[in-house]
Design brief:
Blueprint: H1 2-5, E1 13-17, H2 25-35, E2 48-52, H3 54-64, H4 69-81, H5 93-106, H6 124-133, H7 137-145, E3 150-157, E4 163-169, E5 175-177, E6 180-184, H8 189-195, E7 205-207, E8 210-213, H9 224-228, E9 233-237, H10 257-289, E10 303-307, H11 313-319, H12 326-334, H13 345-349, H14 353-369, H15 371-378
Parallel strand pairs: 1-2, 1-9, 2-3, 4-6, 9-10
Antiparallel strand pairs: 3-4, 3-8, 5-6, 7-8
Length: 381
């Protein structure tokens, strides 16, 4: 049944979901818009799924339901529409400030003691949510049945400084490039925890003998994993929001810690993707100028389609700032984050349903607005 429904163009079409913490709710809205144009029993229109940070969790959830695109999107949407911050990291006063005090005290311990990972928040609740919501054994089943070709999850190695794409696939050899590599493995919860461990915000994760953090760090070439996995088309759902000119130009004060932290996160999650797409476009132009006999086997044209938010998430997060748990608001105020502040930090950490619903609705509308272009790119019926 599914073989007859599979679009041949999807066999080498990849989906790339970038990072962005709570902003990843936007991705669900775009996916919902695509699913709304297809029959209910249609499998995923992407055979290669790639995710980084919060996008890695969305990517894995879709891979678990690769045989039915509608079902995967529906389950993702249910989680994001009913989110509470306490499902991602601890939000009660005792745990929040106890965690910070524990980090401070551990810095006075001897170096030979294995200290717990330092972070602003303890995201252990996320591990429990992932175990509850994801049946990871379905990924291997979907690969075997042909509903999925490959799933890759990108994490950053604090031990080597490499960007590591942990991928699950059959018959695809690992790769090694400068500061990036691909490792064939069976995706598990620890890979997702590592990929979504925002630096300084959530603790690093140990995988085998190395320590890993958010996949957006050191990711100089975010398009590399889908290309190595065989993609000739990459559909990218980003979280690079339009600029808010309110903060441009003359500023009477030095930027605070919160503003700088938000700026760093914006850089980590957005800038490298734009640069990599520019490089790919230059390669495509070079390939188009070469005679067929001179084209190297590894040099091929790869087309991309990028959809980013049409609205500014910082402004939307400020509207919902009051919905954050009181302990979290107190802690953020201590580092200069409050309602209507210039920092974008809140837009990454606000895992509350009032905010995530808003982002889903924006993604859905953006997807509908570009429906014809998306269907043409994906060659959907």
């Amino acid at each position: 049944m599914y073989k007859n429904q599979t679009n041949p163009a999807s066999l080498n079409t990849a989906l790339l979901l970038t990072g962005g913490g709570a902003r990843a709710a936007y991705q669900v809205g775009v996916l919902k818009a695509i699913a709304s144009t297809l029959p209910r029993n249609t499998p995923l229109p992407f055979k290669i799924i790639n995710g980084t940070s919060a996008g890695a969790i969305n990517a894995t959830a879709l891979s678990c339901y690769a045989s039915c695109f509608h079902l995967g999107v529906k389950k993702l949407e249910w989680v994001w529409r009913h989110f509470h911050t306490s499902q991602v990291y601890h939000t009660d006063f005792v745990t929040v400030f106890g965690h910070i005090i524990g980090n401070m005290l551990s810095s006075f311990q001897s170096n030979y003691i294995n200290h717990p990972p330092a972070s602003l928040f303890d995201n252990e609740p996320l591990r429990g949510l992932l175990k509850q919501m994801l049946d990871l054994q379905r990924i291997d089943r979907n690969i075997t049945l042909g509903h999925l070709k490959a799933l890759s999850i990108t994490a950053s190695s604090y031990s080597s400084g490499d960007s590591v794409a942990f991928y699950q696939a059959n018959g695809i050899a690992p790769w090694q490039r400068a500061k990036r590599r691909g490792e064939n493995t069976t995706i598990n919860i620890e890979h997702l925890m590592a990929s979504s461990a925002i630096p300084m915000v959530f603790p690093s994760i140990k995988i085998r003998k190395g320590y890993f953090g958010d996949g957006s760090i050191h990711q100089h070439s975010p398009l590399s994993p889908p290309i190595h996995l065989g993609a000739n088309k990459i559909f990218i759902i980003g979280v690079d929001q339009p600029s808010n000119n309110k903060y441009f130009g003359f500023q009477p004060h030095y930027p605070g810690i919160s503003t700088i932290a938000g700026h760093l996160l914006d850089t980590i999650f957005s800038d490298t993707l734009r640069a990599d797409i520019e490089r790919l476009e230059r390669v495509n132009r070079t390939v188009s100028l070469l005679p067929s006999r001179d084209k190297h086997q590894e040099l091929k044209r790869v087309d991309t389609y990028v959809i980013n938010p049409s609205q500014n998430f910082n402004a939307i997060a400020n509207q919902h700032f009051a919905d954050m748990p009181f302990a979290i608001k107190t802690l953020l105020r201590m580092i200069g984050v409050k309602k209507n502040s210039e920092s974008s930090l809140v837009s990454y950490l606000l895992f509350e349903k009032s905010y995530t619903k808003h982002l889903i609705d924006i993604g859905f509308q953006d997807g509908l607005n570009q429906q014809n272009e998306i269907k043409a790119f994906l060659e959907l019926p």
